[in-house]
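Standup notes, structure subgroup. Blocker cleared on the adenosine-5'-triphosphate input:
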Amino acid sequence: MLELSQVSKLFNPGTADEKIALTDIRLKLAPGDFVTVIGSNGAGKSTLMNIISGVMKPDYGEVLIEGKPIHALPEFQRSRWIGRVFQDPMAGTAPRMTIEENLAMAYARGKPRGFRLGVNRSKRAMFREQLQRLGIGLENRLRAKVGLLSGGERQALSLLMATFTKPQILLLDEHTAALDPARAELITRLTDQIVRDLGLTTLMVTHNMEQAIRLGNRLIMMDKGRIILDIPEERKRHLTVEQLLGEFEQISGHQLSDDRIVLG
Amino acid sequence: MIGSLSGAVELGLLYSLMALGVFITFRILDFPDLTVDGSFTTGAAVTAIMISHGNSPWLATLVAFASGLAAGACTGLLHTKGKINGLLSGILMMIALYSINMRIMGKPNISLLGVDTIFASISPLVFMLIVVIIVKLLLDAFLHTDLGLALRATGDNSRMIRSLGANTDSTTILGVSLSNGLVAVSGAFVAQQSGFADISMGIGMIVIGLASVIIGEAIFGSGSVFRATLAAVLGSVVYRLVVAFALRVQWLDASDLKLITAIIVIVALVLPTARRSVKARSAARRRSLELAAAAAAPKQGGVR
Ligand SMILES: Nc1ncnc2c1ncn2[C@@H]1O[C@H](COP(=O)(O)OP(=O)(O)OP(=O)(O)O)[C@@H](O)[C@H]1O
Ligand SMILES: [Mg+2]
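Run returned:
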């Protein structure tokens, strides 16, 4: 479904603050894979997401979706296949526009945008139905400006917008990190439910170790721009947080350091 | 008095298309576009030269619209593809248009007295009322289409709309282009109504457009697209009423108008930020008093 081969990325090459963000990343996701990603600050997790989604281009290597190389396409063209939720709840929605207008823009993902009405009666009914699945009452506020919503509500809406057109790939970059524990738990639950219901191929960066083990069918660990461990489903099922941290230390030679780390 | 009142309303409507153009760049795209000063004159110049050469005023107005679209597209291209700062792109285009306008007109002033314009057979007030209502409603409708939503999102959260598949370079170019098209049409109508085109008639247009948008928002609100475009149109009318009133004041000169306009815009821009910071400071003060009281409370409990 998604394949990365020998992907490398340097920042500020040849200068004093040259930074190796990714080195020789090889990763292959099967359809329906739900992979959680953990790693220290600066390990290259966000860079990996940005290279898959097209915000940045790799310096070397290839990104393929369903066998097609896509790493040369600009971000807006890749969005046909890729849904994204950002860490910042403000990043995934347009605050001065209404809930239904935001959904309409997500609904137009991957289609040519022309002079058809963004929100009509049938789309509105569909949006309402989709919002009901979130179970937080947004279906009654279709015409409210998104800027009025709380961070958690906005993130739930972003999640819906990223997924309801069933993209081939879903990228989640610490999308619960900016929320308080109760709301983070809500978004986590919704994520699990939506990804399973739709069978989306998903890559989820998280700083919550317990979550990384509990969710998904595969776990990868990154450090200093490399994937240092890839844990398959059978092993992951019996893994504990202590074992995971121990394993990290053993392979990387230092402790997992993450300013937002949550153990469980 | 009634005469000058209806005259002011008429002017307000003539310039309201320009205000709608400024609304598109300034409010929707969040792009301070100074092309306006040049493209307004371009619209007037194209119309005047075409009409005085015997072309239909309708055709002339249409060509003016097209030339405004082209001017705006250039600014958009400079900004998106040339990666030139937005303000600077507009200034560059404005300067370039000065020469181009001079080339179009051949001389600094073209008179349309004695030639048939659109307003030869229709009263400007009635005509403009109809045109402005139609343009406003069309713009509203456009801003609710898929493309219109993408345009609005480009100014609201460009990162998001890119991740949803819109090419924000294209939407920016489209928006700036459409804006200057409207500005040029406004120039075309003003030239026909006033009976001349002048090379310097666009100077200060951007500030007048901003003043109209800001006054409109302050009085009529901007909750929805419908309200916001209505506010831009009515803001333009109110601006002309203010000007008409100012001109009746003994000790004010006509040349003071630009200063008055600038002051209106400055006040309107400074007030909301100032009000916000005062509010924030008093909220912070109240909260820290509360916290201090809460911290003091247990101690008092201990003394008993
Ligand atoms: N735009 C950029 N310019 C220069 N350096 C960058 C840029 N983006 C990231 N980096 C550097 O690349 C490295 C990888 O960053 P990245 O954001 O991918 O890490 P991360 O794993 O997401 O970390 P975190 O857990 O803090 O989010 C870091 O050392 C970072 O400083
Ligand atoms: Mg990151």
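Discussed briefly. Residues 2-94+150-252 of chain A form a domain with the Rossmann fold fold (CATH 3.40.50.300).
Next: hand off to the docking folks.
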